[in-house]
Amino acid sequence: MGILGLFDSAIPYKGQNYKDLKKSCVSTGSLFTDAEFPPKDSSLSYSPDKVPSNVQWKRPGEICSDPKFFVDGASANDFAQGEIGNCWFVAACACIAENASLWKKIVPDFDGQEWIPEKNQYAGIFHFRFWRCGEWIDVVIDDYLPTRNGRLIYCHSPAKNEFWPALLEKAYAKLFGDYQSLVAGLTRDALVDMSGGVGEQIDMNEYKTEEKGMELFRILKQSYKNQSLMSASIAASGNDMEDELACGLIKGHAYSVTSVKDIPISTSSGLFSFFKREKIHMIRCRNPWGGTEWKGAWSDGSKEWSQVSDTMKKEIGLTVDDNGEFWMSFEDFCQYYTDIGICHIINTSFFSLKKTWKEGEAVGEWRSPSRSGGCSNNKASFLKNPQFVFDVTKDEDEVLISLEQFDRRVNKEAGDSQFTIGVSVLKTDLNRVYRMHDSLREAQSSSFVKSRSVMTRAKLKQGKYCAIPSTFDPGFEGEFFLRIYASSSPELKELTLEEPDRNSGCCCSPFYMCKAYRSALQILISSGEGLEGKDLDRKSDPFVIIRCEKEKVKTPVISNDLNPKFDQRVTFYQKTPKENVTLEVWNHNMIKDDFLGVCTLSMTQRSSFKGGNKMIGMPLMGKGKGAAKPTKGRLWVNVLYTTLLDTV
């Protein structure tokens, strides 16, 4: 389901239905007071010693004479941070406010929520929508806001009679239990909560070389083009948090990244002759505090802007307003910022000129002792994690994998913090339907981070893969949300059963369907050697069909190769272990495939396959009347036979 499609329905938070509550208040002529998030100290902080002093809860009509939900629509300039350290959230709001298709979904029926005195419909009740691990949640609030001396103490609009920023922040605080729980966080997480996008955190230390720097600029530029939401920050310790650098940037603050451009410049003055280029990579940022801005090259009113035409200045919306927004070169951006958060808005619409992704998603749970095995460092327990298989159907495809744990900030009073999480991707059997008990090679692994979410990108060849989300250490319990994006449908599915039911049949029954499973056969098709060239260029596009009892499995086609590297495995669960297994090699054609040869595994010799650690070269033979004659080439395989079904 597409990101924006998820907005169409939402679950009432704490069972509070906005329409029903508002209707009741309007009919009685009363203003709504939220019993679930009351105007009391408990809504300010989970800790009594962190409750701010001299706070009075007031409705907007008690703060100003002409309160409005919106004043002149929504913009990034609507949000100014208050006394609480939640610039990460304020920066996210500024990003969202620039995208009408997003904020109008977060603020449903925004016109209907506006103050219109003549309609006499105002009931002191509002609602906002946030995304939580695959579901949209509708959060209802009353309009009581914390003030001191008649002024809002938390997030507010510069327009004294505009209240949507303060009310949006209140709804978000309710979702986490109280305002204090919003202290310190990642802008990326707030952006995900307000868009349903895929979060990615980038450590700038990994992009220090010139080549890596250009790769990073391409990522940022493409993300901006795709309307992804971005932020940047400078790492700070407790001692230097919110320190202002000489260049004007604030440590520990989350800055919205509002534009990424290649800007044409004139080099007639020789100012940029060192770079020998006609365009300069530029980034536009915004400080949610406003006021304090970048003071270096390309800051507001700096001499560098004389190198840019008036037409281009107008095109990029250059202003010298003291609004916290500024431009800087990408070189300076990389020099000062240490972390970037990106919320990718993944396009899953068929009706788009941009790349369309197909999505697979699943909710899962780490549960001890059988489903919380820790990362791959824990060899004995790693596969005792939730397992999800997915398909790559193109010859090679870029795959995006996102793992999101349920936000533990809501349990802050109990001292809960985020788990260190990551996701590993293993190559698995083409016909894998039961849980893996032995590992094929690892195809990709994310970093393991103490964070709400992790994302990794992978270039994967055609085949079936197993994604294993895990905590770093074993034994942690909690829910998570896994998403996988590829060019074609990944068909994401959790593996829940350890093995076939051995008790579902009888080994003595004459009917196949009634027989019990007795053994397992695992075949790794490694490669082909010296195959016959059937095409006009004397090449072939080979693939293998494996037949075992009633099951048939086909490997992906390898293009234009007489010595193909298949590197594919299959696992069969057998009811009649004595029945031979065949491996047919074919050349793929548009109309009719060409037969190249077949080899047969004689299951009367199955005891010799119990080790499973020996590569076997099997000559290809003909079929039909030519069955006794060899054809050209051979197939290299590794075979394992076992009666222990829960070991493969």
Structural overview:
By secondary structure, the protein is α+β, with helices and mostly antiparallel strands. The chain has 4 domains: 4-187, no CATH class; 198-344, Cathepsin B, Chain A (Alpha-Beta Complex), CATH 3.90.70.10; 358-495, Jelly Rolls (Sandwich), CATH 2.60.120; 505-647, Immunoglobulin-like (Sandwich), CATH 2.60.40. Helix content is 13%, strand content 32%. The protein has 10 helices and 28 strands. Strands 13, 14, 15, 16, 17, 18, 19 and 20 form an 8-stranded antiparallel sheet that branches. Helix 4 (87-97) crosses helix 7 (187-193). The longest helix has 16 residues, at 210-225. The chain is elongated, with a radius of gyration of 30 Å. The two termini are 34 Å apart. The active site is at residues 87, 253, 287. This is Calpain-5. Belongs to the peptidase C2 family. One of its GO terms (molecular function) is calcium-dependent cysteine-type endopeptidase activity. Keywords: Hydrolase, Protease, Thiol protease.
